[in-house]
Amino acid sequence: MKKLILIPTVFFTTLVFTNCKKTADLTPTRNLADGTNQSVTQLKAIASSTNTHRFTTENYVTGVVIADELSGNFYKEVYVRDAANTGAIHFKFLTTGSNLFIGDSVRLNLKNYDVNIDPTTQILEIDSVSFDKNIAKFASGANPQPIALTLADGKYAANYGDLVTINRVSFASGFTGVQFSDPIKQISGNDNIQDCFGNTVIVRTSNYALFGQQLTPTGFGSITGIATSYNGAAQMAIRTPNELYMNGPSTCNTYITKNFNDNLIASGNWTQVSVSAPSVIWKTGTFGSVTSATISGFGQNAENWLISPSINLSAALNPILAFRTAAKYAGLVLEVWISSNYTSGLPSTGTWTQLSGFALSPNNATSSYVWTASGPVSLNAFKNANTHIAFRYTSTTTSASNWELDDIIVGEN
């Protein structure tokens, strides 16, 4: 506190409250390190179980703060990566002003708290935390590093709640050079970033963020923040615009793209061949805000191939294929094949190799069109001047999934 000399009592009281800094290192009412140290992996298992999620005995979790309230983009909350580096957890406080900052090492006693996975965000969280009574800050100055990933590698959802850096992205058209949010009109911001393969994430910025009136960058590069989601849509909450390094030119190098936004299956010299059941074909349609290709062979023994034009990969360095799918109803999975000698006509006129190692949308009795990114599919074994990609759909009279396909890209990884 400041030293006060000959100041009237009424002002003395005011100055004392103005200059006293609240500390998070309050003496706890009990030893907050009693019991068992729980990792994020263990807490996720507890939160996912059908048993009670409330701790009735002494347990605790320790970790390092990776996002705080300082920028105004986070309110009554911090994100903490556990000491075992198994993941991150979201602490939601009863009040704001926790005095916990990025790099602080903290311990939260879990007794009488519920651990849950928020159904809206899919993030592990502890709600209604009292930082005065249940949190001890025992060190400062740590430098937690973000997890580096790309939108095409399919790892974003696995790191919800954690600090990540997304490489090789830019703000999408219409979202460059605009305010992150509008604190005057009290409007939060939703700005899309995208990679070279059409994968997107929403950058969500609170209207209370101190940097809200700053403008989004126009270049290409990387962005760091907390990986979040909202009702299935991937989002990111940045800690500060200083962690956006988007000053470079685009380095996207694509050989072929197909997004069906023109409502045409055959544009760009794509073809489809019905081997059986000629009425079962790919069509375009708009579902919600997404225009894609769709096919269904309900009640029929069908086989249809959607085949790309010839792609010259003879000079490619590290080519990959990426696409998105959504499906509904139980049936056979959508297959992906590649050929180096196909020219035209029936697929049987060429030699094809089935590709694997990618993600597909779930197709079962309870699935309902969950858009799923394939992740990068290496084409290094197929660097030829005449490469064709094909999507093979099949159905039977008793089993037929509806498949949707979008954002097909072959490019350099």
Which geometry do the CA atoms define? Answer: globular
CATH architecture of the largest domain: Sandwich
Number of helices: 3
Radius of gyration: 26 Å
Chain-wise SSE layout:
Layout: H1 9-19, E1 36-37, H2 40-48, E2 59-67, E3 77-82, E4 88-93, E5 105-109, E6 115-117, E7 124-129, H3 131-134, E8 135-139, E9 147-149, E10 163-171, E11 189-194, E12 200-205, E13 220-230, E14 233-237, E15 244-248, E16 254-258, E17 271-276, E18 283-287, E19 290-296, E20 302-307, E21 319-328, E22 335-339, E23 352-354, E24 372-373, E25 377-378, E26 388-395, E27 402-412
Parallel strand pairs: 1-2, 4-7, 9-10, 12-14
Antiparallel strand pairs: 2-3, 2-5, 3-4, 5-8, 6-7, 10-11, 10-13, 11-12, 13-14, 13-15, 16-27, 17-20, 18-19, 19-27, 20-26, 21-24, 21-25, 21-27, 22-23, 22-26
Question: What would the keywords be for this entry?
Answer:
3 domains, seven-stranded antiparallel β-sheet, disordered N terminus, globular, mainly beta, 413 residues, 38% strand, eight-stranded mixed β-sheet, OB fold (Dihydrolipoamide Acetyltransferase, E2P), Jelly Rolls, single chain
Overview of this protein structure:
With 413 residues, this protein is mostly beta strands. It has 3 domains: 24-139, OB fold (Dihydrolipoamide Acetyltransferase, E2P), CATH 2.40.50.140; 147-248, OB fold (Dihydrolipoamide Acetyltransferase, E2P), CATH 2.40.50; 254-412, Jelly Rolls (Sandwich). 6% of the residues lie in helices and 38% in strands. The protein contains 3 helices and 27 strands. Strands 1, 2, 3, 4, 5, 6, 7 and 8 form an 8-stranded mixed β-sheet that branches. Strands 16, 18, 19, 21, 24, 25 and 27 form a 7-stranded antiparallel β-sheet that branches. Strand 13 (220-230) and strand 14 (233-237) form a beta hairpin. The longest helix is centred in the first third of the chain and has 11 residues, at 9-19. The radius of gyration is 26 Å and the shape is globular.
